[in-house]
Design goal:
The chain is an alpha/beta fold and 338 residues long. 34% of the residues lie in helices and 18% in strands. The protein has eleven helices and 14 strands. Helix 3 (108-121) runs parallel beside helix 11, helix 6 crosses helix 7 (215-227) and helix 10 (278-290) packs parallel to helix 11 (317-333). The longest helix is centred in the C-terminal third of the chain and has 17 residues, at 317-333. The chain is elongated. The model has no long low-confidence stretch (mean pLDDT 93).
Length: 338
């Protein structure tokens, strides 16, 4: 349930109404103060609330019932777009945030070199995998803690905030300390215990869509994080599994405007994992910006042919520079900037 308040409502009136609502028991009231309107979002069993009595309060403009199971992630609860601060980089809002870097950290020379190159081209955040979830147990699994240290060295050298994927709840404290944004990969999107624990931190969380997840399931996963108090959630569309086999996944570009309509959370797109083909990264990056994405996550490697992970979908720093020049024009056409 959402209660929309009249413009000019005083805090004293809000407090009185909140006291009435919470006295029913089992109700949590979440006030959202917007630039134009203030709303009260109610979470819990609202069936015991006497709507007629609530509407009798002068400060109440109207009452709206929320049908969707996700509440905190719902745009009705938070009409204005959320902007997540990743160590000084805004994700959401008018400026687009581009995250770029190798699928996996392989060496100090590799990660610092790529970091410097993508920064020069306009990337705002460095991505890099220290722990790599792989389909085969025999494939390269990442440098793990050594990889985190190399990412930190690249951050120190370039000033770029870092985002990296967390695999185990046992490493949450380490990731909170070491990285600027914690990535939850597609395979862990519905690891609800992990999501709840991340919700008890205040670290920005990049939540990738599961490979077979519906949009509602994706938003419900965000709800798990937000329900524990962490509302710094960034959604990432990275392709879903369909019957098509030509591409690695089917990049669901249509999910971007849908999520922007349903939720206030920022949404970025990963055209690298979404297609699995480096030559498709640029056109899908263009499409993502055109439909309203708040940013991109692109895999960039200095030597894709010899990459230890996902070389077939990684582009070179020179190619990334061309992509950035291209999407700047698209951004300008839709009223955004990089």
């Amino acid at each position: 349930m959402i209660i929309v308040l009249r413009q000019g409502t005083q805090q004293k009136e809000i407090d009185q109404l909140t006291e009435l609502l919470t006295s029913q028991g089992g109700i949590t009231v979440n006030p959202v103060y917007g630039s134009e309107i203030t709303i009260l979002g109610l979470i819990g069993d609202t069936t015991r609330i006497d709507s007629t009595r609530v509407e009798s309060y002068h400060c109440v403009e109207r009452i709206m019932h929320v049908a969707e199971p996700y509440k905190k992630a719902n745009r009705m609860f938070h009409p204005e777009d959320t902007v997540v601060d990743v160590s000084g980089v805004a994700v959401g809002g008018g400026r687009l945030a581009v995250m770029a870097g190798p699928c996996s950290v392989e060496s100090r020379e590799q990660i610092t070199g790529v970091a410097a190159a993508v920064k020069e081209s306009g990337a705002a955040i460095l991505r890099g995998g220290a722990f790599k979830p792989r389909t085969s147990p025999y494939a390269f699994q990442g440098l793990k803690y050594e990889g985190l240290e190399l990412l930190k060295a690249a951050r120190e050298a370039t000033g770029l905030p870092i985002v990296s994927e967390l695999m185990s709840p046992n490493d949450i404290e380490r990731f909170v300390e070491d990285v600027d944004c914690i990535q939850v990969g597609a395979r862990n999107m519905q690891n609800f215990d992990l999501l709840r624990q991340l919700g008890r931190t205040r670290k920005p969380i990049l939540l990738k869509r599961g490979m077979s997840a519906t949009i509602e399931e994706w938003l419900m996963s965000a709800e798990y994080i937000m329900s524990e108090g962490n509302e710094n959630v960034i959604l990432c569309e990275r392709g879903i599994r369909t019957f098509e086999t030509y591409t690695r996944n089917t990049l669901d570009i249509g999910a971007v405007p849908v999520v922007k309509r349903l939720s206030h959370l920022p949404v970025i797109v990963d055209p690298s994992h979404g297609t699995g083909k480096r030559w498709m990264v640029e056109p899908m990056a263009r499409a993502a910006i055109a439909v309203g994405a708040d940013g991109l996550m692109i895999e960039v490697h200095n030597d894709p042919q010899h990459a230890l992970c996902d070389g077939q979908q990684s582009i070179t720093p020179d190619a990334f520079d061309e992509v950035m020049k291209d999407i700047r024009q698209i951004a300008a056409a839709v009223g955004r900037e990089i």
